[in-house]
């Protein structure tokens, strides 16, 4: 196990869900099949409701944008009031949803409908969200240490709140200061992270983003957000370059030994060195060097040398 420091300037932890707080298996084996199994029945039951019609309109708009894609499923506008027309539209929405899900698309339209469908299942106690065992204790510790903790997931804010409000560990929603979804922008776009910082009222460099997806980490890093890639059982593998480049963590947990840290620590595995002595002054430059050992310019390396000298 390797101890990684978090720079003193970090005051906000931004968490991804799938593959970070929650096993991918829970999403792929429980949440998504629920949608595929129930989408037709859901549409038939709720079709006349305003919320359902808004979801369908958003899906139709998305389908228009997707028209050029291979296998895209169009959603026709209503052409009459008849039962046949309604059934034809419902079937088109079902096919569109299943097509999007087969590609694991993260469109706002799909995520909005999914969130509305999961609501009934969570509220009826049919599903309880799962978190890796280190997640809830670590979030509590971070908050005690004065950090703010936010969630940024492709899952809609409503779905996120259902998840954290109905988990195997009870209702832990109050542990989070706020939630962001793709309405603020996609997770692979740097601008989204700037907007999140602005919405929180901090600088991007005050944020540490934890995600399992390196494209998301890269987009966040380009916006000057600190990042660490989360390696969990069941996550997609990383390339050797990714393993070298990114800080990797396998747990949010703090090690049992209490260190005189400027902020707090995460644990992980990888090529990173272990710093035994921390001071607020040295922590940041060492962290920057470890995060990107091969690409930082000389002055960063000089910083590290001075850290090493002080540590020896
Ligand atoms: C309430 S999140 C449900 C999972 C989901 O729909 C999803 O797309 C997760 O994506 P993430 O950005 O959290 O990896
Ligand atoms: Mg994820």
TrEMBL record:
GO MF term set: acireductone synthase activity; magnesium ion binding
Compartments in which it is found: Cytoplasm; Nucleus
Presence of keyword Amino-acid biosynthesis: yes
Binding residues annotated for Mg(2+), in chain numbering: 16, 18, 212
Its EC number(s): 3.1.3.77
Binding of substrate, residues: 153-154, 187
Keywords, alphabetical: Amino-acid biosynthesis, Cytoplasm, Hydrolase, Magnesium, Metal-binding, Methionine biosynthesis, Nucleus
Pathway annotation from the record: Amino-acid biosynthesis; L-methionine biosynthesis via salvage pathway; L-methionine from S-methyl-5-thio-alpha-D-ribose 1-phosphate: step 3/6; Amino-acid biosynthesis; L-methionine biosynthesis via salvage pathway; L-methionine from S-methyl-5-thio-alpha-D-ribose 1-phosphate: step 4/6
GO cellular component terms listed in the entry, alphabetical order: cytoplasm; nucleus
Keyword Hydrolase: yes
Protein family according to the UniProt entry: Belongs to the HAD-like hydrolase superfamily. MasA/MtnC family.
UniProt subunit comment: Monomer.
Name this polypeptide is given: Enolase-phosphatase E1
Organism of this sequence: Sus scrofa
């Amino acid at each position: 196990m390797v101890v990684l420091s978090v720079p003193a300037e970090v005051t906000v932890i931004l968490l991804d869900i799938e593959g970070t707080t929650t096993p991918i298996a829970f999403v792929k084996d429980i949440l998504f099949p629920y949608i595929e199994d129930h989408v037709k029945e859901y549409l038939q039951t709720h079709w006349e409701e305003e919320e359902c019609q808004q979801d369908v309109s958003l899906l139709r708009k998305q389908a228009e944008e997707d028209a050029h894609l291979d296998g895209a499923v169009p959603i026709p506008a209503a052409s009459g009031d008849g039962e046949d027309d309604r059934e034809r539209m419902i079937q088109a929405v079902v096919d569109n949803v299943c097509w999007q899900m087969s590609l694991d698309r993260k469109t706002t339209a799909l995520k909005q409908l999914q969130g509305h469908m999961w609501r009934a299942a969570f509220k009826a106690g049919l599903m309880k969200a799962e978190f890796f065992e280190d997640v809830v204790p670590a979030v509590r510790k971070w908050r005690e240490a004065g950090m703010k903790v936010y969630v940024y997931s492709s899952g809609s804010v409503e779905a996120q709140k259902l998840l954290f409000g109905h988990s195997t560990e009870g209702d832990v929603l109050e542990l989070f200061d706020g939630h962001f979804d793709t309405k603020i922008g996609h997770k692979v776009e740097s601008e989204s992270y700037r907007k999140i910082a602005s919405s929180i009222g901090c600088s991007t460099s005050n944020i540490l983003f934890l995600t399992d997806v390196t494209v998301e980490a890269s987009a966040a890093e380009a916006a000057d957000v600190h990042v660490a890639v989360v390696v969990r059982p069941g996550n997609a593998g990383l390339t050797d370059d990714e393993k070298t480049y990114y800080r990797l963590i396998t747990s949010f947990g703090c090690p049992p030994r209490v260190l005189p840290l400027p902020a707090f620590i995460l644990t992980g595995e990888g090529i990173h060195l272990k710093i035994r002595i921390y001071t607020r002054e040295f922590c940041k430059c060492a962290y920057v060097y470890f995060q990107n050992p091969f690409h930082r310019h000389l002055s960063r390396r000089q910083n590290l040398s001075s850290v090493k000298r002080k540590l020896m």
